[in-house]
Amino acid sequence: MTDGPGFGNTLVYLSLLIQRRYAQICADHDLTTAQAQLLCTVKDQPRGMGELSQLLGLAKPGLSGLVDRTERRGLVQRVASDRDRRACTVISTPLGKEVGNALYADVAARLPDIFGHLPAADRRVLEELVAGVPTDCGD
Amino acid sequence: MTDGPGFGNTLVYLSLLIQRRYAQICADHDLTTAQAQLLCTVKDQPRGMGELSQLLGLAKPGLSGLVDRTERRGLVQRVASDRDRRACTVISTPLGKEVGNALYADVAARLPDIFGHLPAADRRVLEELVAGVPTDCGD
DNA sequence: TACTTTGGTTCGTGCCACGAACTTTACTGG
DNA sequence: CCAGTAAAGTTCGTGGCACGAACCAAAGTA
Questions:
Q1: Measuring CA to CA, which residue among B58, B43, B40 is closest to residue B137?
Q2: What are A71-102's pLDDT values in tens digits?
C-alpha cells in the first residue's frame, strides 16, 4: 500500500518503453525481438534446445518454430549431437555472430537514451541497481 | 564505451524479466499483455482509436483487431462519437473496470518481487529513478 | 526384450501486428 | 452547392509468435 498506485505498474510501463525501443533497434537490424534474443543467447556459446527452452522461457514447440525461422534466415544452425542422437545443438553461423554483435553494440549505444533525462550520477546508480538483477529468472 | 558491455543490454534483460512476470500475472487474470494494456489505458478514461494508436504504439489495423478481441470478451466497448460520425471511442465496461483494477492491484503487489533481493532503501531509490521516465514515449 | 523416459518435431489453434486497399464522413475551395 | 482532398476506422492477406496435444525416435532401464 505504501507503494501507492504503483511501483510495479511503473516498472511495467518502463519495460514497455524498453521493449518498444529494443524492437525498433532489432528491426533496424532486420530482426524480431525473439530472434534477436535467440541469437544473443547462442552467439557466444552453443546451446541445446532444452537449455534454450529454459533460458528463453519458451515451451518446446515455440522454440522449435523460432529456431526454424531463424535458421531459415541463416543466422543459426542446428547441429546433431554425437553424444545423443536425438538431441541437437543450436549454434550461431558466422553471419549470425556478426549480426548479433552489431545488434549488441547498437543496443548498448542507443537504448540508454530512455534515461537521457537523468543526470549522469543518477544513471550510474540506476545502472548498478539494475545490474544486480538475478541472472536466474524466477519462473 | 565506459558503459562496458552493456547498460543497454542489461535494461533489455530486465525488461524481459518484467514482461515475463507481467504476462504471468495477466494470464492469471485471463488476459494477454496487449489486452491488459488496452484495458488499463481505457479503464479510467475513454479514448479514441487514434489516441490509443498513439499511446499503445500500434498501427491502426493492429489496434482494430485488439479492440475486436477485447470487446468480444466483454471488457471494452466501442461507442460512437456524436461529434464525428466516423470516429468511435473505446470505453471500459463495468466488468472491464473490475478486471482492470484487480490486475492493477495484483501487478503492484506481485511484480516488484523481481527486486526482492534489494534492500528497501535501494528499492526506494530505484522507484524514484524509474518514476521519472517520460510519459511521452520517444517514437 | 519390453517398458518408460526424454529430446524434438508436427499439427492445429489463437493472438498479435503490419501494409495495402477500401468505405464513410468531415472539411475544404471554388 | 458541389467537387476534391483529408481523416477515422475497417477489412484483407500475410507472417511471426507461442501454446497444448499428439507424435516419433533414441536412450535408459528392468
A1: B58
A2: 999 999 999 999 999 999 999 999 999 999 99
